[in-house]
Write a structure and sequence with these properties.
The chain is α/β, with parallel strands linked by helices. The strands form 4 sheets. Strands 2, 3, 4, 7, 8, 10, 11, 15, 16, 17 and 18 form an 11-stranded mixed β-sheet that branches. A 3-stranded antiparallel β-sheet has the order 1-12-13. A two-stranded antiparallel ribbon has the order 5-6. It contains 16 helices and 18 strands. It has a domain at 50-261 and 374-477: Rossmann fold, CATH 3.40.50. GO terms for molecular function: serine-type carboxypeptidase activity. Belongs to the peptidase S10 family. Residues 43-70 are annotated as: Disordered. Residues 43-54 have a biased composition (Polar residues). Keywords: Carboxypeptidase, Disulfide bond, Glycoprotein, Hydrolase, Protease, Signal, Zymogen.
Length: 490
């Protein structure tokens, strides 16, 4: 009778897509985290002395790189809504002529006074996932893909309302980015990813020279807890050597993966704090796990002694995507403004030949959100790199959606504590224009800021688009978001 009931329930509700074969950003990161938990080898630390590690890189283009701004301009995206009032560009920028390595970008200018607004580079994580498919068309970009996989709708809280935003598919092998040296499409690492992104920017600015010297910010999420600070480190280290095209002002990173071992502890602590695991299980984990490089058998047994259930670890309170017996997709429940099946819509959109032609993609290209890339190098902790950047005077903000269990706020707090900075403005709520508490924020010496976004998961702009925009705008201005609700007079 029990088996029959379960079968009927599956038929009625549909099968969850959390175990689908398609690699998504969430799958890539969790796979990476598991692999790093058992990494015992010691890697050379490229980031210990950035000035020495990157001094061999060029600080300017020797000759104009191929490609033009005019050729990259998008006339219109297939299915875009009417009255689009901003410029869009996309195309390839070569980062290695020797290996035939080229990175794909999508750039949207602001519809409002673009000439006076800053330039922001957005990087999604993975490692090995697309900033085009996730960041641009599911999160902070001007459009979202509709369930038909063919048309687009406007995102009212897109970040290009306040900045000119550049989305980069990185490294080679991700999305439409590629290398003619086939092995490079399946193997990469932190160092090459950062260097390629730097070369990309150097060449891209030749194509868009009006952005040279413009206020420049780097933003991202997830494994971009590595990508963003590392790219900022390369730029900062080369600035004194003459890389004057960049006017880097700050970095803005959401739900970042910062520390292999602090993240392990933070994940289980978050699950306990939110009632997913019991006091007894948490106590057993604490008793047998050191959250270090080597763990014993008892730790593994303690960690595997409970069932989480079919929930989205990237937002433990969000609905999941279900597939009906007829193949149609639907959300398990309703959450305003969020569709857990959007991955599938985006996949269909970017594999449409009309879309690929419109955005200047190479012919016969198959697009997927993430690539199965073997990762060759990554520091255990990003805290030393963040500390170095803060000491240079760079504006550094980190934020966390408070419903994420994969890069949870509990883990990020441990890394923030490791920075050992004095608090200058203590933890307090911040408000949206509707007088809602958008989250909480705290500032430290050197201007370093840590903030939360209330009610958001791993992909903060997907779950809380307005709150993410308020926080992002505050970051650009270099001031904390409002500390008090808006006063409405009678």
């Amino acid at each position: 009778m029990r088996t029959f009931s379960v079968v009927v329930l599956v038929i009625l509700l549909g099968a969850s897509l959390t175990s689908a074969a398609t690699v998504r950003q969430k799958d890539a990161l969790r796979t990476f985290i598991k692999s790093r938990a058992h990494t015992l080898t010691s890697e050379p630390n490229t980031w210990a002395d950035p000035n020495s590690s990157f001094k061999h890189l060029p600080t300017k283009c020797k000759s104009p790189p191929p490609g033009t701004r005019e050729a990259d301009k998008i006339a219109a995206l297939p299915g875009q809504p009417p009255r689009v009032n901003f410029n869009q560009y996309s195309g390839y920028v070569t980062v290695s002529e020797e290996h035939g390595r080229a990175l794909f970008y999508y750039f949207v200018e602001s519809p409002y006074e673009a000439a006076s607004k800053p330039l922001v580079l957005w990087l999604n994580g993975g490692p090995g996932c697309s900033s085009l498919g996730a960041g641009a068309f599911q999160e902070l970009g001007p459009f979202r893909v509709n369930p038909d996989g063919k048309t687009l709708s406007r995102n009212r809280h897109a970040w290009n309302n306040v900045a000119n935003v550049l989305f980069l598919e990185s490294p080679a092998g991700v999305g439409f980015s590629y290398s003619n040296t086939s092995s490079e499409n399946s193997e990469s690492g932190d160092t090459r990813t950062a260097v390629d992104a730097y070369i990309f920017l150097l060449n891209w600015l030749e194509r868009f020279p009006e952005y040279k010297g413009r206020d420049f910010f780097i933003a991202g999420e997830s494994y971009s807890g590595h990508y963003v600070p590392q790219l900022a480190t390369v730029i900062t280290a080369l600035y004194e050597l003459g890389a004057s095209s960049f006017n880097l002002k700050g970095i803005f990173v959401g739900n970042p993966y910062l520390d292999n071992y602090k993240n392990q502890r933070g994940v289980y602590e978050f699950l306990w704090n939110h009632g997913v695991i019991s006091d007894e299980v948490w106590g057993n984990i604490i008793a047998h796990c050191t959250f270090g490089r080597v763990e014993g058998k008892a730790c593994g047994e303690a960690k595997s002694s409970f069932r989480i259930g079919d929930i989205d670890r990237y937002n433990i309170y969000a609905p999941v995507c279900l597939e009906s017996p007829n193949g149609s997709l639907h959300s398990s429940s309703y959450l305003a403004g969020y569709d857990p099946c959007i991955d599938a819509y985006v996949d269909a959109y970017f594999n449409n030949p009309k879309v690929q032609k419109a955005i200047h993609v190479r012919t016969k290209t198959e697009w997927s959100e993430c690539a199965g890339i073997h990762w060759t190098d990554a520091p255990v902790s990003m805290v030393p790199t963040l500390d170095w950047l803060i000491a240079t005077g760079l504006r550094v903000w980190i934020y966390s959606g408070d419903m994420d269990d994969v890069c949870p706020i509990t883990a990020t707090r441990y890394s923030v504590k490791d920075l050992d900075l004095a608090i200058t403005k203590p933890w307090r709520p911040w408000y949206t224009p509707q007088s809602e508490v958008g989250g909480y924020a705290q500032q430290y010496e050197g201007g370093f800021t840590f903030a939360s976004v209330r009610g958001a998961g791993h992909l903060v702009p997907s779950f809380q688009p307005q709150r993410s925009l308020v926080l992002f705008y505050s970051f650009l201005k270099g001031v904390l978001p409002p500390a008090f609700p808006k006063v409405i007079s009678a």
